[in-house]
Write a structure and sequence with these properties.
single chain; alpha+beta; 2 domains; 5 strands; 46% helix
C-alpha cells in the first residue's frame, strides 16, 4: 500500500530526473570498470556486475519516464475489500451494508478499473459485489447486490456491463 502511494505521487518528470542521475552513475561505473581492467584490480569482475545492474536500473527508470503510473479514481466509489480472486475471470468483493445504488455502480467501475490486467486468464472478467447480512446471531447470509463484466481484450475504461439487483438493494435499505 505504501509503494502504491509513493508511485501515485511520482510523475514522469521525476523518473526522468532519476534517469539522468542514474546515467551519470553508469558513466562512473563504466570508467571505474575500465580502469580496474587496465590496472588488473581484483575487484574488476564485481564492477562489471555493478555496471550491468546500474544499466538495467537506468533502462527501467527511462521506461517509467515515458509511461506514467496512474490510477483512475471513480467519484462516488466507496471502500471495498476483495474476498475472492481466482487470478482469472472471477472476483468477489464485499461492500458496506449502507451502500446506495449510485455508490455501488461507482464502486463496481472502480474495481473493474483497478483489477484489470490483460494477463488474467479468460476472455471476460466478472466482478460480483456482495455484503453480509446478520439477521440472526451466528448466521451470516451473503447478499449479492450487483456485478460488472469487462472484456479483458479491451483496455477501454468505459466499456463495462453493469448489472445492479435493485430488489436486493431495497431489502438492504429496509434493514
Amino acid at each position: 500500500m505504501y509503494l502504491e502511494t509513493v508511485l501515485a505521487v511520482l510523475t514522469p518528470a521525476d523518473f526522468w530526473k532519476a534517469t539522468q542521475w542514474s546515467s551519470a552513475m553508469v558513466g562512473f561505473f563504466v570508467l571505474l570498470t575500465t580502469l580496474a581492467f587496465l590496472l588488473k584490480w581484483g575487484i574488476r569482475f564485481r564492477l562489471v556486475g555493478a555496471t550491468g545492474f546500474s544499466i538495467v536500473l537506468t533502462v527501467g527508470l527511462f521506461a517509467l519516464s515515458f509511461v506514467p503510473i496512474t490510477s483512475t479514481a471513480v467519484p462516488g466509489s466507496v471502500h471495498y475489500s476483495i474476498v475472492y480472486d481466482n487470478g482469472g475471470g472471477q472476483i468477489v468483493m464485499t461492500v458496506p451494508t449502507d451502500i446506495t445504488e449510485s455508490q455501488l455502480e461507482a464502486t463496481l467501475r472502480q474495481v473493474a478499473i483497478d483489477r484489470f490486467s490483460p494477463g488474467r486468464l479468460g476472455q471476460t472478467l466478472l466482478i460480483r459485489a456482495r455484503t453480509l447480512l446478520h439477521e440472526e446471531d451466528g448466521v451470516s447470509e451473503p447478499l449479492y447486490l450487483g456485478q460488472v463484466k469487462r472484456q479483458l481484450a479491451i483496455a477501454d475504461e468505459t466499456a463495462f456491463e453493469i448489472e445492479i439487483d435493485r430488489s436486493k438493494l431495497k431489502r438492504l435499505a429496509q434493514l
